[in-house]
Amino acid sequence: MAFITTTLNEFVGTSEPTFIGDTQIDGYVTRGCIKMNVVLRRMQGGMLMPVLGTTVALPYGTGKVIGYSDERLLVDVTEYNDDYEFINADETEIYDAQETVARRNSALRSSFNTIATDYERVYKSEITGTLSPMRQSKLDAYIPEITDSTVCVTLKGQFLSGSDKIVAQTIPSVKLTPAELRKQRALEIAEARKLRKTLLEKYDDEFGGDDAPDDAIQAELDEMFGNDDGEF
């Protein structure tokens, strides 16, 4: 297994739940004459992992991905949305885009400072009162460098364009025994049933207990797996 970068344009999703051994793959990436099985690297909330340097849109502006922290994106805001306003819960304060970024940046720095303080308290030497070079190196690697306009975010929905690069893990094909093939197929069937059950529950809520229309469920399954022939 290895990690690669690809684009959404290069990625082709599976048409139905597909396993390679015990691993469910998201789809395929073709390089030259080689078709690779891949699992897309996802972060908090199922967010795809864009590569460093990717430009992303935020409610309060636009920025570039400069790192990752706790399965979220660290984004340097470079342009501000002049129309953005944030009103606090009791409606006593209104913050513009730059003020919002400053507040989020301050909270991020406080979080990192708390982590560093707790780490030093637990691991510092009782003799020197400081961290060992190895411990200090681990702490430095864990806490990334940020600027005064860095925020930590989780983005929902389709926030990337087809040409943006994302991270994926390749899953090598393996030759399976008949028993392993049966197990793999059982996993695929179980996943398909799980998806259908989830959709049935969703539509049950929407239609107030009435049976969900099969064509609605089929359409959503087709959209999930890029299936155009209506067969699942």
Task: Give a structural overview.
- With 232 residues, the protein is of the alpha+beta class.
- It has 3 domains: 1-47 and 162-174, no CATH class; 55-155, no CATH class; 182-223.
- The protein is built from 4 helices and 11 strands.
- It has helices at 97-123, 133-142, 178-206, 214-225, and strands at residues 2-7, 11-20, 23-31, 34-40, 55-58, 61-69, 72-80, 86-87, 94-95, 150-153, 165-171.
- The chain has a 5-stranded antiparallel β-sheet with strand order 1-11-4-3-2. It has a 4-stranded antiparallel β-sheet with strand order 5-6-7-10, covered by helices on one side.
- Strand 3 and strand 4 form a beta hairpin.
- The mean pLDDT is 87.
Largest sheet: 5 strands, antiparallel
CA radius of gyration: 23 Å
Total number of helices: 4
Strand content: 25-35%
SSE sequence, one letter per element: EEEEEEEEEHHEEHH
Distance between the termini: 29 Å
The helix-and-strand class reads: alpha+beta
Mean pLDDT: 87
List keywords for this structure.
single chain; 232 residues; alpha+beta; five-stranded antiparallel beta sheet; four-stranded antiparallel beta sheet; 4 helices; globular
Topology:
Layout: E1 2-7, E2 11-20, E3 23-31, E4 34-40, E5 55-58, E6 61-69, E7 72-80, E8 86-87, E9 94-95, H1 97-123, H2 133-142, E10 150-153, E11 165-171, H3 178-206, H4 214-225
Antiparallel strand pairs: 1-11, 2-3, 3-4, 4-11, 5-6, 6-7, 7-10, 8-9
Nutshell version of this structure?
The chain contains four helices and eleven strands, in the order E-E-E-E-E-E-E-E-E-H-H-E-E-H-H. By secondary structure, it is of the alpha+beta class.
